[in-house]
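> @MW can you paste both from yesterday?
MW: sure, first one:
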Amino acid sequence: MDDLLITVLIVGFVAQLIDGSLSMGYGVASSSMLLGLGLPPATASACVHLAEVFTTGVSGTFHLKIGNVDRSLFWKLALPGVIGAVLGAYVLTALPASTAKPFVAVYLLIAGVVIIRKALTQAIEKKKITDKIVPLGLVGGFLDASGGGGWGPIVASNLVARGRKPRKAIGSAILAEFFVALAASLTFLATVGFREWKILACLVVGGVLAAPLGAYMCRRIPARVVMIIIGLLVIVFGLRAISLAFSL
C-alpha cells in the first residue's frame, strides 16, 4: 500500500508539471492509472477531479498572477464548462461500473492518440481566431467529467489551433478548469460519495508541489516533445485499463 501511495504521489507531481505548462495530461494520465489499479470509473473520476480542485486552483492562481489569463476567454470557458461537467458527472454515476469502464478506457485511449496527433501535426502557421468558445467549453466539460479527464486536450489544444496565443490559451483554460473540477466533484460527492482519501491526498500533494513550477515552465517547455510523451503514457495506461475492463 505504501508503494502504491508513493507511485500515486509521483504520478500526481509529473502529471501536474505537464498539465501546468501545457494545460493537458493530468486528468487523462491520472484517470488511466486509477482505472488500471481497478477503481470504478466514477470513483476514479471523482478522485481526479477532487485533486484537480486543489492543483488547478494553485496553478490557475499562478497563471493569473504572471499574466497568462485572458479574462474574457476565461469566462466563456468556465460557465459552459461547469454545466457540461455536471451533466457528464451525472451520466457517469448513472452507469454501472461494468458498463462504464470499457467506455471510459476507450475514451482515454483515444485522448492519448489525439494528444500525439496534435503534437505531430500542429500547424506552424496560425489559423484565424474564431469565437465558438461556449460550445467548446460545454463539450470539454462534459467529456472531462464523464471520461475522467481530457479538458486540456479538448479545450486548450483547440484554442491554440484556432490562433489564440499559447500562454493565454493555456492559462485561461487552467483557471477555468478549477471551476469545472469543482462542479464535477460536488456532483460526484452528492451522487456516489467518496472514500479513497489516501489516494486523493497523494494526488493533491504531488500536484500542488508541481503547480507553481508548471506555470513558470509554460513559456519555455518544448510542448511538442512533452505532448508526445504524455500521449504515449496515456495510451499505455488506457490499454491496461481496457484489458482489465474486458477481463471482468
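MW: second:
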Amino acid sequence: MKIIIIGAGRMGIWFYKYFNFKNHETYFYDTDKVKVIDLKDKGFRYHEIDQIKDFDIVFCSTNISSIKRVIDSVKNSGFKKYFVEISALKTPIVKSLITLEKPISLHPLFGPGARTAKGKKLIHVLLKEKEEELAMIRELFPEMEITTMSAEEHDRLVTKTIQLVQLISMIYNRLAIEGDWGSSHRMMKLVESVSLYGSDELIKEIFELNPYTKELKESVMNVLEKIYSGDYTIIKKEYFKDLYTKAYEIMEDGL
C-alpha cells in the first residue's frame, strides 16, 4: 500500500519505519522544514500533504490540537480512502473524524522505544463500521493485540492510566529535595515508565483537552481529604510492603 505519515515526531518515525519494513510505499510530511531536510538527507521519502488523493492511507501522528487542521487539509486534497490517527485523546476530535470517508482511530499502548511490534497493544476507538475498521487494522498490524472501545471509555481510561500517573510524578518532582535521589528516584522512574509518554507538550494537551480531567481532580481531592482526615483505611494487611516489593521486582527485571 501507499502510505503517508503526517507528523514526523518520534512515534511518526516509528510507524514510518514499521510500514517501510513491511514493504509499503511509505512517505512522510511535516511542517518543520529543518526536520524535513534532516530526514530527507537520511533517506526518508517526503511528500506534500495537498497532493495525496492517490494514497491508500493517510496516517496522522501529530499533536492533538493539530488534528482538525490536518483533517481539513486531507479533505481539501480530495482524499477518499483510509485516514488513521493515533492521538492520546479521542472525544475532542471524534466529530471531525467522522466527516471523513474511512476514518480509523487508534491509541498505541507503547512508546517509540519499542523494538518490535509483536505482542504490542492497540486500542481501537470505534467510529463508523467496526468490522471494516478492524479488518484494516489487522491487515496493517497483524502482530498486535487490539481492544475496541468507545471514545468516552477511552478518554476516561486515560485519566486513570496516563494522567493520574503523570500527576503523581509531577507532584513528586516538584516536592522532592534535589540531592535526595536514591531508591526514591528509581521508584519514580518506574512510575514514569508506566505512563509511556515523555513529551511535555502531550501531557499538557491531555490535561487541558480531556473532558474528564475535572472528574480526576475531584476523585484525587476526595481521596486526599480522607487521608488527611484519618478516614482512609488500608483494607489489606501489609499493603504498602507488598506494593514496594512488587515495584522493586519489576525494576530488577529491567523495565
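> thanks! The first helix runs from residue 10 to 21.
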